[in-house]
Amino acid sequence: MxxxxxxxxxxxxxxxxxxxGRTGTGxxxxxxxxxxxxxxxxxxxxxxxLPTQARPxxxxxxxxxxxxxxxxxxxxxxxxxxxxxxxxxxxxxxxxSYIGGKRFSTMTGKADGKLMLAPVEPxxxxxxxxxxxxxxxxxxxxIADELCFVKSLHTDAVNHAPAISLMLSGAQxxxxxxxxxxxxxxxxxxxxxxxxxxxMTSVSKGTSCGQIFYDFYWGSGFLPSRxxxxxxxxxxxxxxxxxxxxxxxxxxxxxxxxDLGALNRLKFEAHGDPEIATRIAQYEMAFRMQTSVxxxxxxxxxxxxxxxxxxxxxxxxxxxxxNCLMARRLIERGVRCVQVMxxxxxxxxxxxxxxxxxxxxxxxxxxxxxxxxxxxxxLDETLVVWGGEFGRTPFIQGNLDDRKRxxxxxxxxxxxxxxxxxxxxxxxxxxxxxxxxxxxxxxPVHVHDLQxxxxxxxxxxxxxxxxxxxxxxxxxxxxxxxxxxxILQGA
Length: 491
What we know:
This protein has 491 residues and is α/β, with parallel strands linked by helices. The protein has 14 helices and 17 strands. The chain starts with 6 loop residues before the first helix and ends in a 17-residue tail after the last strand.
């Protein structure tokens, strides 16, 4: 384009692409001004920066979600799913009738002739509900009456990354929006100074588990990138690159951002690319986070009684205990979804060693978070979910005579997750597996059913929250999913 060309002559020569790009910026600029002015969205005051469906479809039971995701698949038969028959048949071959052509990981191959393995630690009943919880998790047992145990979960994937992707995004192949991205896309944000979707990760010290935290576990997929999770790190700098360079005053930084924003607006006017609007908004968010993040990470005003709930490692940034406390502080400040991921549960040959460490690192903080939320009156409006991507086999992986190296392989056919708060019925166990914990046989719950239920409690109808991409309307639950209403209060 010749910049000296008269405006009317330019319009006569304007291509269709230029016309569409130019005419699309009117709405875009209106949206952009709102985006920079406020990050809030609600049914009463929907933000034009969000889709028209960015409001609850029905009254929500929960305003916030905290997902305590246990990477590596906790062993349900050692922690939650008490099977006396498994004790009786310890060391016996698994009956063929339980296998039925099932697919296991390549480490197991065929399950024919595999020996059954009894729970490593004893189980006890807890509370008025009488829930069975292993001695591995004494703190979880003490809050059993606050929890809803779903014991009949099953999934389609047999390996970690595809199974985690399926649990968090509804698809085994990476690239779909994750739960937190869908929630922020559908409901907007309640805070202007922190991201709506925050993520923290941790790993037990000394674990041999080599699992990696892939960024697509909290990605926005084909949704605009402003909906992806923002990772908070352990250490003195929870979010990278927030601070000003040495010697740069805040006022100078503000002036630089204003100039950069003006340049980006010119680019946005020319192209109408929503990612440019995201870029501007993220710069502004980062500037506000220079104040909000240090305040968030300052635990000096937390009472000792509260810190004690989370256990001795709560003061150590980057631990699961620290991240659980930070999750509470984040939702207090309006963050919509917090995803706390902890790796190390992949006990192929370490049930009698590393499982103890894993439970010690996560048991008290998980229970402490529930107690802390309840004491502050936040549990009713916060949905807490604890669980992994699948379970572990009732049969042994390894040599029965070598107790120090007992293990269990991946098991997609049955596993347990617990939930608390957010309108979920407390003190119940839902669904059952067979007498060996092998298959979900009573009231089975698929991964998509769990996703539909979580969205429902947040005020979202899982079939109506969609995003059109490449000619198709996508949703978190794909073309599946049913709300598990029996576990919900008032259902």
